[in-house]
Structure formats: C-alpha cells, structure tokens
Amino acid sequence: MKTADAIDRAKAEGRRAFIGYLPACYPDLATSVEAAVQLAENGADIIEIGAPYSDPVMDGPVIQQATTEALGNGFRIAELFEVVRQVTERTEAAVVVMIYYNLIDRMGAEEFARSLAEAGGAGAITPDLIPDEAADWMAATEKYGLDRIFLAAPTSSPQRLHRIAADSRGFVYGVSLMGVTGKRAAVSDAAERVVEGTKAAGAERVCVGLGVSTREHVEEIGRYADGVIVGSALVAALRDGGPEAVGTLTAELTGRSS
Amino acid sequence: MTYREHEGPYFGDYGGRWMPESLVAALDELEETFRKAKADPVFAEEFQALSRDYTGRPSLLTEVPRFAAEVSGREDGARIFLKREDLNHTGSHKINNVLGQALLARRMGKTRLIAETGAGQHGVATATAAALMGMECVVYMGGADTRRQALNVARMRLLGAEVIPVEHGAKTLKDAINEALRDWVASVDNTHYVLGTVAGPHPFPEMVRYFHQVIGEEAREQILELTGRLPDAVSACVGGGSNAIGLFHGFLDDESVAIYGYEAGGDGIETERHASAITLGRSGVLHGARSYLMQDADGQTVDSHSISAGLDYPSVGPEHAYLADAGRVTYEPVTDAECMTAFEQLCRTEGIIPAIESSHALAGAARLSASWGAEGADKTIMVSLSGRGDKDVETAARWFQMLPGQDDAPEQDESAAQAAEAPQTGVQS
C-alpha cells in the first residue's frame, strides 16, 4: 500500500491518517516489529521505521537515545529492510522509512530504492535531503515507484513550497515548529500555516509532525492536516512499557480508547 | 576558471546543502547578506579595521633557520617560514572568520551567537567576538574535549559565554556540530550559527574561506618581499581545513608552488585510530556538505581520533575534497608521534610553542625538507602556524612525561588512556 492510499482510506472513513514512528531494532529487531504491529492494530495508517544513524541532527533526546542504543547493539542497514518486510507482511499499514541521506548514499540511491521496494516499503522520509540535492533519489524512487516525502518548514518560502510540493510523492511532511523531534506542551500555530502554504503550492496531502504527543494535539492538527505524525511519545512508551504500551498509547492518540 | 575564484555551492562533486529544510531560509538569508557585504565598501572597512586594530593583522612571517637545520639534518637545507597566525588576538587564525561572521550576524539583526568547538580555539574566538559586540554566546563542545582542553573552557566562561559539554557519540567535534545544529533549528530567528571551518552547507565553505583568505594574501606578499620569489612549497594542517584554505588561496593559481595539506594520522592510518578523511575516506554527506567522509560499509560515520582536538573530525571541507581530486593539493597523514616530534623541535630550536594542530604542518614541512636533502638548498617552505600551544601545554607535558608521577610511565600509556576516553565504534571500510 502507498501512503496516498492510506491517507485517502482514512479520509473515506471520516478521520485523519495517523502516522507513528518507531526506530528499527530498538530495543531489538523482534521487539521493534512487535511494537510496529501494535501501532497498526491500534489505528496507525502509516508506519515510519526510523533507520538508526550516527549523526541524527533533526532528532531530540528520546529518539537519539533509542537509535544510539540500536547502533550500540550493532544495527546494520540490512536489518532495516528486514523490519520493513516483517511489518509489511503483518499489517495493513503503509510502511515508510525515515532515513538520513548518507545511509542511502552509501548504498547508492538506486540500490537502496530497489531493496526498499523489494521489502514492501512504500517510500522514504528524508529529513536532511532537500529537493535541490535529490536528483539521484528522484530518479531511483521514480524507477521503483516509491513515495518520496520531503519536509516543508514554517520558514519555507512560497517558491520552495512549490518545489517541495511538486517533487514529493505520497504526502508532504509539514514541520509543525522550528526545532527537533520531541514532546512539546502545545502545537505551534505555525503548523496550520505550513499546511495552508504547502497546499496552496499544490500539495494534495500534507501531514504534520514534530512535538505531537497527546490526543488533543492529534485532534487539533486533524482539523487542518491530512494526517498527524507522532514519534518521540511512542518511542518513550516503547522504552518504558514495551510493545504493549505502544499499543495503549496509539489507541489513546487515535481516539480508539478514552 | 581559476582555483582562486571558485565559488559555492559546489566544488566539483562536493559541497551543496544536505540540510533540513527548516534551515534553508536561514542559509539563504546568510548567503544574501554575505554577497551584499562583499560588495559593500563599508563592510570591507569595518572588517579590515577590526582585523588591524583588534586581531593585530597583518600577522608576522618568521623565518625559523634553527628549526630548518634540525629537520633537514643539514646546514644548507630548505628555508622554512612560518605564517604566524598564532600571534593573532585569541591565539589562532579562528578570529578572522569569527569577526567576519559576527559582523554579518549584526547586519542580519541577530543577537545570539552559537558555535561548535573542538580544541576550543574557535569557541574562544566566538566568545570573544560576542563580548566585543554585546551578543549572547553559547558554545557546544564535546565532553571529551572539555576535559582535554579545560583551559579553553575556562577562557570561554571568563568571556561570558555559556559552554555546553556534549556527551553524545564520541563526545568530540562532530557531536558538538550536531548539537549546535539542533540548537540552530530551534533558534534561527535570533541566532546566527558561527560555523568554525570551511565545512557545512553552502554558503559556509565559501564564506569562511573568504574571511581567511587574508592569510594567504599576506603570506604571498611577505614571502615575495623577503625572498624575492614564491615559496616552493606551502604546508598547513587540515581538520575541517579553514587555516589551510586561507593560506592555500594565496598560492592556488601559482603553478610553481606545491601545496600540501596534512591530515591527522592519529596512531597511524593502518590502525583505526586516525582522522585522515581524504586519505582513507570516501564521498558522503555529513553536516550539510558532500565531501570525503570516514564511514563504515553502511554509511555510519566512523569516530575519528587525533591527539589534537582541533583536527579530530571525520570529514573535511568540500573545497579540499575538490582540490584533492583535481590533484592541485597533496594531502598526507601525519601521526601523533611525528607531530609531537615537530612540536618539540620548534619549542627547542626557536622558542615558539605551537598548537598541536599546527604541529602537523610543521611535521609535514620537516618530512618535505628531509626528502629533498641537498636539493633543498635553494628551496623555501611556507608553513601555516595556525595557533599557539598554550592550550596544549598539559597534553604535551603528559606526552613527554613531564607531569608529576609520570616518571615511570611508558609513553604508550597516554594514548591508551585517550583510547579509553574516546572508544572507537564501527569499522572503516
């Protein structure tokens, strides 16, 4: 399943897509798959599998700590595809990876795209890749029919939003605030402007992430965005309570429990 | 096009902007401010006045005949000249770039400066500029580096800066840059990130070079005046490569001048403990630029190692990667041991205590001179003495076993102790 289908399916059911992030192989491969399955069973439409990376500049302390631990346990890039394969087999969700570009570059954009497509992955979110530098990645994702999800920021100019909207496929990741991943007390009002601006620039689907951690945030963002992305709160739940806690939190965030 | 006139964002296959979208607007604003400033005589006057009256430019060119004789082992060896950036205010070349960027920050209306630092020289320079211009200052420094450069931490705090030790990863320069970038993403409204080297996303490599070009321009003029001709070789140490690019730019278009950049070879490039990104790295993206990068088979960054905190970086500025591929500059590793030999030689023969970073350039010049033998008689070498060694006294004293209680310890104990402090992860491919 591609991300656009997952977003549209949610819309047809009268709700906004819920997108959950978990790092591959944290705390180990099997548990990370179990946690992702819990995400899907409790209402996630799209699952982001994060690739642990040595220099994650867009990540706050919770995700850094988790991915550093995964790297310390010997995470290898082949395991990212294995996690994607298992989660795809066991859930109905669209599965994308969240990956810093050097990990793609080292394997080669085309080889990476081929491996991701073979594993059943829908595409990739690339937090440190802007369309300006993405020629190789555009060609590779085109060849293997993968979604490529670029980020749009509160500071992005209308011209940049046009390029981001035109070059993205699946959806655009609207950054809700200026900062890195991690819990915030409130959702910044910049988020709504990012969604409006990106849609005005031609994007069909815009999902919002960064700092989203409560059902209230999810409902608020759901009023204007096509999907809501939660990361650090889920990773903290996995850290403190295992896959079951991920399921419980997901049910709460998606409004399946109250 | 000449090498000297090369502008960003790309240097051959290298450079660019491999950065989160959130920072692109700030980079665009910086680029525009920089372009306007370059064309503005008022800015040139401000920068030159500060360089002259505050930094103390031009820096001296000093011939070091006793050092030259010692390293060549002969009385008629190559003449060696030092470009004395160590005599600048704050003790290194770093102040050139910092003053330029602080002036740009002021033009952009930013009131807060942040910086990363390895050895502490760039952090000290940034703290100094912030004090001078009445700006707030936060410096990120790897936890391991705050311990091996404790004196510079105190200097920054005396100057009113907040120093934040970074305890992630290898706790060195690379991790300090990650943390500074995370700060900047959240603070870009009022904050300028004073990147300290010719790495990072466009326009940093081109802009930082611009503020350091004065090193090469002065050196070229000075050596012509002193010897009546250009040097046969130019030598500088290369971590990110800012002092090197500054000196090299004075000579890049002079075909007769051989140019050498010396990377940190750590325990030796046959070990995994080094910081020789050009010699053993391969193309990759880190901290906003494509360049040579020490990485494993999966693309994870490999931790670097060097006795010198300022060269302890797993990548290098993109223009150096380009100059290496073009064959214009020769890059070679210098080990900790070779560099400390040169350090001691300069201290003993000339009464100048160099920074351990700069000692790599001295060791390179020594290697060149020795290789020339009798042919060196008519030759001259220009060396960038990028910083002074005051900050390194404790590290050097430990290396040479001059600290109390070290009398019985074999020399290897020190590098073993440092290995324990900064454990190596990953495997160089």
UniProtKB/TrEMBL annotation, chain A:
InterPro entries: Aldolase_TIM (IPR013785), RibuloseP-bd_barrel (IPR011060), Trp_synthase_alpha_AS (IPR018204), Trp_synthase_suA (IPR002028). One of its GO terms (cellular component) is cytosol. The keyword Amino-acid biosynthesis applies. The keyword Thylakoid does not apply. Its EC number is 4.2.1.20. It catalyses: (1S,2R)-1-C-(indol-3-yl)glycerol 3-phosphate + L-serine = D-glyceraldehyde 3-phosphate + L-tryptophan + H2O. It is an enzyme of class 4 (lyase). Tetramer of two alpha and two beta chains. The alpha subunit is responsible for the aldol cleavage of indoleglycerol phosphate to indole and glyceraldehyde 3-phosphate. This is Tryptophan synthase alpha chain. It comes from Nesterenkonia cremea.
TrEMBL record, chain B:
Pathway: Amino-acid biosynthesis; L-tryptophan biosynthesis; L-tryptophan from chorismate: step 5/5. Its cofactor is pyridoxal 5'-phosphate. Pfam families: PALP (PF00291). The keyword rRNA processing does not apply. Its EC number is 4.2.1.20. The beta subunit is responsible for the synthesis of L-tryptophan from indole and L-serine. This is Tryptophan synthase beta chain. It comes from Nesterenkonia cremea. The gene is trpB.
